[in-house]
Automatic annotation (TrEMBL):
Name this polypeptide is given: Cysteine desulfurase
InterPro entries reported for this sequence: Aminotrans_V_dom (IPR000192), Aminotrans_V_PyrdxlP_BS (IPR020578), Cys_dSase_SufS (IPR010970), PyrdxlP-dep_Trfase (IPR015424), PyrdxlP-dep_Trfase_major (IPR015421), PyrdxlP-dep_Trfase_small (IPR015422)
Domain of life: Bacteria
Keywords, comma-separated and alphabetical: Pyridoxal phosphate, Transferase
Cofactor(s) listed in the protein's UniProt record: pyridoxal 5'-phosphate
Annotated function: Catalyzes the removal of elemental sulfur and selenium atoms from L-cysteine, L-cystine, L-selenocysteine, and L-selenocystine to produce L-alanine.
Domain called Aminotransferase class V: residue spans: 30-412
Enzyme Commission number(s) from the entry: 2.8.1.7
Known catalytic reactions: (sulfur carrier)-H + L-cysteine = (sulfur carrier)-SH + L-alanine
Coiled coil regions, renumbered to chain: none
Family that this chain belongs to: Belongs to the class-V pyridoxal-phosphate-dependent aminotransferase family. Csd subfamily.
Length: 426
């Protein structure tokens, strides 16, 4: 892995076939990587090569192709484990996406709460009056599963409120962590505000109260060096499609001793030790959470995406996006009639910015920009409570990545400055 803190996005763009196109007669300015990143050619090639040369079921059969497929599948696990600082490959569980990974933890805790997996799983069991804590800024994937868990177990669902700019602080969280808090789930990086949470400090506070820490790392794993064990969290989830890989694959990382004690979410083939007509025993982690046929070619391609990111260097990606974040926020904040949510200019944030244009709906803003070949995300970004707290129904979000150029941001800023006049509200 390189440790360079500089990258050349113009050079990297040549690696991405999807960026070599025009949209509505303009060169594509893809500023929606926070939703789904484009894929480099090496990732596309890796998946096709596997399908042509090694396509077979994993951990089944004794023929040559099955052996090749299984080897590639487990090598991918090792590659991803190293990428996030796992102590062993067994701490990496394949899921269908990050939403699935977070549900796996929540439903596993729910199963423990009804006695499944006892006695090992009793450490997870929730009872009436126990507390689950999230933040008001969470993506629905890290909010709704915990609401459901509270409803099933009688636990109390609580949340850290955000401030007028959509941010929250360690002190805000500390005020709500109690000795009854059993789970604290929060995002490393907000997909709306770009707030970067001080994970180590929050994890230490939560553990002092005896709580498990569940991290949504979807907006951090693709963009900055990540050592989950060093951060002190217990579980973390992220998605392949946000980090140059295919859709249909997610990752759950968990501390080995916790994964081995957590009851499974899905059951069926490939995750069992023995099955009788009156009982079933399950394999240890990670296999106990990988029931059924897995998306093997996508997993192999995700490993190739990780190798690509390693070659570029996450330090360089992070530095590049920090610079572009400030370019975005400073430029947008200077435009009359635009409100940027999240940390102010000059304050560290991830490489994204969500904004409201006074008098123009976000969908209209997005269509106006799209007419100029600029792709952004519009809507509530799966964070309705946060938008409601900010008095907004929707925002427009521009998100950067390693292939984003300053010229693309300048095109966005120019388009954003023209929106109100175009719709006759300036």
């Amino acid at each position: 892995m390189t440790t360079s803190t500089h990258l050349d996005p113009t050079r990297l763009r040549a690696d991405f076939p999807g960026l070599q196109q025009e949209v509505n007669g303009f060169p594509l300015a893809y500023l929606d990587s926070g939703a789904t990143a484009q894929r480099p050619g090496v990732v596309l090639d890796a998946e096709r090569r596997f399908l042509v040369e090694s396509n077979a079921a994993v951990h089944r059969g004794a023929h040559t192709l099955a052996g090749h497929a299984t080897e590639a599948y487990e090598e991918a696990r090792e590659t991803v484990a190293r990428f996030v600082g796992a102590s062993s490959a067994e701490e990496v569980v394949w899921t269908s996406n990050a939403t699935d990974a977070l549900n796996l933890v929540a439903y596993g805790i729910g199963n423990a709460s009804i006695g499944r997996g006892a006695p090992a799983s009793s450490r997870f069991a929730l009872t009436e009056g126990d507390e689950i804590l999230v933040t008001e800024a969470e993506h629905h994937a890290n909010l709704v599963p915990w609401q459901e868990l509270a409803a099933r177990t009688g636990a109390v669902f609580r949340y850290v409120p955000v401030r007028d700019d959509g941010t929250w602080t360690v002190d805000d969280a500390a005020a709500l962590l109690t000795d009854r808090t059993r789970v604290f789930a929060f995002s490393h990086v907000s997909n709306v505000t770009g707030l970067i949470a001080p994970v180590e400090q929050l994890a230490e506070l939560a553990h002092a109260r005896g709580a498990l820490v569940v991290l949504d790392a979807c907006q951090s794993a693709p963009h900055r060096p990540l050592d989950l064990a060093a951060l002190g969290v217990d579980f973390a989830a992220f998605s392949s499609h946000k980090m140059l890989g295919p859709t249909g694959v997610g990752v759950l990382w968990g501390r080995r001793e916790l994964l081995d004690a957590l009851p499974p979410f899905r059951t069926g083939g490939s995750m069992i030790s023995t099955v009788a007509m009156d009982h079933t025993t399950f394999l240890p982690a990670p296999q106990r959470f990988e029931a059924g046929t897995q998306p093997v070619s996508q997993i192999v391609a995700l490993a190739e995406a990780v190798r690509y990111l390693d070659a570029v260097g996450l330090e360089a990606v992070e530095a590049h996006e920090q610079q572009q974040a400030q370019r975005l926020v400073t430029g947008l904040a200077a435009i009359s009639g635009i409100r940027v949510v999240g940390p102010a200019a000059g304050v560290a944030r991830a490489g994204l910015a969500s904004f409201d244009v006074d008098g123009v709906h976000a969908h209209d803003v997005g269509q106006y920009l799209d007419a100029q070949g600029i792709a952004v995300r519009v809507g509530h970004h799966c964070a309705q409570p946060l938008h409601r707290r900010l008095g907004l129904t929707a925002t427009t979000r521009a998100s950067t990545y390693l292939y984003t150029t300053d010229d693309e941001i300048d095109r966005l800023l120019q388009g954003a400055a023209e929106v109100r006049r175009y719709f006759g509200v300036a």
